[in-house]
Write a structure and sequence with these properties.
- The longest helix is centred in the N-terminal third of the chain and has 14 residues.
- The chain is an all-alpha fold and 64 residues long.
- The chain has three helices and no strands.
Length: 64
């Protein structure tokens, strides 16, 4: 299964990715795709996201 994603990286990460891609002898997008594919389990296990705080639900019992 393939999913198209957009990645935002810093200039330092770009340089590191470019160096790694050249060592892998792959285009940068293919090198990044390979890394994400082979480390997906680790990425999912180490990503912790909490739900944003939103408005509190209306307590209809408190309204008269």
């Amino acid at each position: 299964m393939e999913i198209e994603i957009k990645v935002s990286i810093t200039p330092q990460q770009y340089i590191r990715l470019d160096n790694m891609a050249s060592r892998m002898r792959r285009p940068m997008d293919k090198a990044l795709g390979w890394m994400v594919t082979h480390h997906m389990n680790s990425i999912l296990e180490n990503t912790h996201i909490s739900a944003p705080a939103g408005p509190k639900p209306i307590d209809w019992g408190a309204i008269e």
